[in-house]
Amino acid sequence: MAEGRLVRRLERLARISRENVLHVARLARLSLSDDEVELYTPQLEQILEHASRIDALATDEVPPTSHPVEVGNVWRDDEPGPCLPVETVLALAPESDSNRIKVPPP
User: Fold this and answer.
1) Closest CA to 18 of 2, 4, 7, 34
2) How buried is residue 96: exposed, middle or buried, by Cβ count under 10 Å (0-12/13-18/19+)?
3) May I ask the CATH class of domain 2-55?
4) Residues 56-102 pLDDT 10s
5) Sequence spans of domains, the chain
6) pLDDT for 31-55, tens place per residue?
7) b/e string for 2-24 if b means 16 or more Cβ within 10 A?
8) For the packed helices 34-55 and 2-13, what is the interaxial angle rounded to 10 degrees?
9) Taking the model in full, what pTM does it have?
């Protein structure tokens, strides 16, 4: 089952190394000091251990939910309205090029 694979993977990851923390930081584009790496390593290990314990719970009979209580749509109907002029939007952007908002590369 997929759940069993997840538990085994979390158990393998439960021993977090400094390199694991640096790898996650790099993926998140975070620059961490040595002190921060030392601080976050045990915290990340605790988070993964907690996720492993949650994954081990018997939830086969629990229906999937996105919210713990029933919630109705409280938003108004989506009605088309006037758009902002392109010039106004581009003036608000940090950078633009050929009537497009320019974003930094990944």
Assistant:
1) 34
2) middle
3) mainly alpha
4) 888 888 888 888 888 787 788 889 999 999 999 999 999 999 999 99
5) 2-55
6) 999 999 999 999 998 998 898 888 8
7) eeeeebeebeebeebeeeebeee
8) 150
9) 0.47
